[in-house]
Amino acid sequence: MTRWVASSGDGFRRGRLSGAGLLRARLRFALGLGCVLGLVKAALVWAQPVAPRIGYVHPAGGQIGTTVEVTVGGRGLARVDRVLWDRPGVEAEVLEYHRPMSPARFNELRDELRQLAERRRAWMNARRSGGLESGAPHAWTNADEERWQQSVNEILANPPNRNATPALAERVRLRVRIAETVVPGEMELRLAGPAGVSNPFRFFVGVCPEQSEPAAEMPNPELERFLARLGRLPETGRDASGPVPVELPVVLNGQILPGTTDRYIFRARRGQRLVAALQARALIPYLADAVPGWFQAVLVLRDVQGRELVACDDFRFEPDPVLFCEIPEDGLYTLEVRDALYRGREDFVYRLTVGEIPWVTDVFPLGGRVGEPLTLDLSGWNLPVERLTIPTEGLDPGLQRIRLKAGSVDLGSVWLALDTLPEAGESEPNDGPAGACRLDLPCVVNGRIEKPGDEDVYRFAGRAGQVVVLEVLARRLGSPLDARLECGRGSDEVLASADDVPDPSCGWLTHQADPWLQLTIPEDGEYWVRLTDTQGKGGSAYGYRLRLSQARPGFAVYWTPSALAVRPGGTVTGMVHVVRRDGFDGPVTLSLREGPPGATLVPARVPAGTNQVPVQLRVPGGTRRGTWRVVLEARAELAGSVGVQTVHPAEEWMQAFFYRHLLPASELWLTVNGGPLGVRPRQGAAVRR
After folding, report:
1. How many CA atoms lie within 13 A of 396 on its CB side?
2. Rounded to the nearest 5 degrees, what angle is found at the Cα of 342, between the Cα atoms of 336 and 348?
3. Which superkingdom is the protein from (predicted)?
């Protein structure tokens, strides 16, 4: 084969390459082409603006009908120009942006100030000695004074801070207006700008008056030394001289820095049933670079003599503490907030609700049948009612976060499970196979492990070859029950058992304590199911829902991340997560229900047996720039019928450097920005560098 090959001169000579030489030439060409394509891809990625990323929000909420200033910390916030909410009734405007100056710029200004200071000192000395007139060439002028003040103001406006976490260093300040008509509860806040839409962050609205401390910043010794040279004290905006006086009821918004404790002092009456409920992990579920992976808050209540009355660092299995105390005497009391390990940072944010407020600790039953009124028995503190009936019409089967309200009194929200199967109740005593409650399948049983060491046993008739699924819903619904299931026959023959079975769709739980098992009945006869608490605990709060039915294959699909950015004609990759239920193992097909016209998904199919697949979203070259709301749909064959599910947007949160958790979001956003891929400037056109 004839090829042009390099000669020792300036040109080329014609010659022949051997097989080995040709192979080497092709390899060199392929490697060179790969390098060029890699550089082009890297340049395109580098040219793509960095989307905003939120690291914390403070205060992380506000009172209905008020206007509040909010600080949002993160990275990539320089061009943020609007705020997105997942519910109507809240508006926000961006007031200002701050980013710590670089150490190089700080050193430059500091050197300039040092030179100016020496010049001013020399000028003042010369003036005092009478050796220099005001009009002399080296006189201290108004321009010098103005430059001095400008440099000082530049440093004070955005001082460098080597202790600041880079992912939290940038800040925007928002003015948030909360309408009177907003329903109390959780909302999602996002920042948006030309580069894209941020990750979602939780923002709570409530009915109590609120009080917030100024936004915290990490200790900055370098700035303190600089201020000392200027003869100034650091302006933290915080009064560390003593506890902050408050009036109850109130929501207190704060941040914990390393080694610090926040203290609040209030007056209370004898017999007052005080509740202090702190939200920290409820605001930021996981921290990627901290162990155990969240802000582990501690609450301590002290009397006027400083004696500890109550202390807590959790509520059952939830890390966020809730403190209950019946006030012993009229007087002043102090409530302390700190981290259990005395850690702290800007994202150690909390909301602390304090007062004689209604607080639901548990409900029973933990769910009901779709379409039928559900009557709940309520337990807790300061509740206006002990029983409440809620409608379930229009709600879908599955786990639902339901807000409870007794007249005009908001009681907060609880997790409930709704199903289409018939409901059954537990009847005591049923502590062994001999006294087991008889059930007709399929059904859902509402029961309790009422005391430590209790066990609930149920009996059903099985047919040979019948496939039966047993599933407990307890921990996912807020019950402290750590359930264990056994299924058997006779007096003590155990055929199958289950303990903790993870549910990836419930990423907020770090201990997945609900069991699930599937059993093929070996022969006709009577079978029993035993449910216990693995830790031997029990009580009125240890409720559960036990499903006994044939297998109901199903699935749920999640897309991460919940915000994407792409150029016209480009592609962006997301991750599709399939949660399979009751043995479903088939393929899942994806499609775009809402989004840019002509956009496609590649691949549009999750193979059988696969739970996680990267999928590219491609948009045409003529796609309009801007922000698009995207809705995806998933379909699969389920026992002869087609199951259709809306794909849930989600975020993958990292805990303690290692663990990853899937947390749902309300919406999926796509930002189309920049110029179309592959477009070259016309000949002679100016290129802005």
Report:
1. 6
2. 80
3. Bacteria
Q: Is 39 exposed, middle or buried (0-12, 13-18, 19+ CB in 10 A)?
A: exposed
Tokens 């009194």 — which residue?
A: 409
In angstroms, the CA 444 to CA 276 distance is: 35
Task: Name the β-bridge partners of 614.
Answer: 575
Residues whose CB falls within 8 Å of the CB of residue 121, separated by 6 or more in sequence, listed in order: none
Token digits for 487?
């299924």
The Cα–Cα gap between 617 and 671 comes to: 12
The one-letter code for the residue type at 379 is S
Tokens 């709600």 belong to residue: 395
The helix (run of H) or strand (run of E) holding residue 245 is strand 244-245
Q: What gap in Å lies between CA 5 and CA 17, rounded to an integer? A: 8
Report which of 514, 546, 532 is spatially closest to residue 422, judged by C-alpha positions: 546
Residue 476 has pLDDT above 90, yes or no: yes
Q: Are strands 543-549 and 467-473 parallel, antiparallel or unpaired?
A: antiparallel
Query: CA torsion 103→104→107→108, rounded to 10°?
Result: -150
Q: Is 394 helix (H, G, I), strand (E, B) or coil?
A: coil
Looking at this protein, which amino acid is placed at residue 344? G
Q: Give residue-wise pLDDT tens across range 279-317.
A: 999 999 999 999 999 999 999 999 999 999 999 999 999
* Pairing status of strand 367-369 against strand 409-419: parallel
**Cβ contact 335:301 at 8 Å:** yes
d(CA 296, CA 288): 14
Q: Which tokens in the block code for residue 42? A: 């890297």
Cα–Cα distance for residue pair 602/594, rounded to 1 Å: 16
Q: Is 51 exposed, middle or buried (0-12, 13-18, 19+ CB in 10 A)?
A: buried
How far, in Å, CA of 42 to CA of 36, rounded? 10
Query: Does the pLDDT of residue 44 top 90, yes or no?
Result: no
As a whole number, the mean pLDDT across the chain is 89
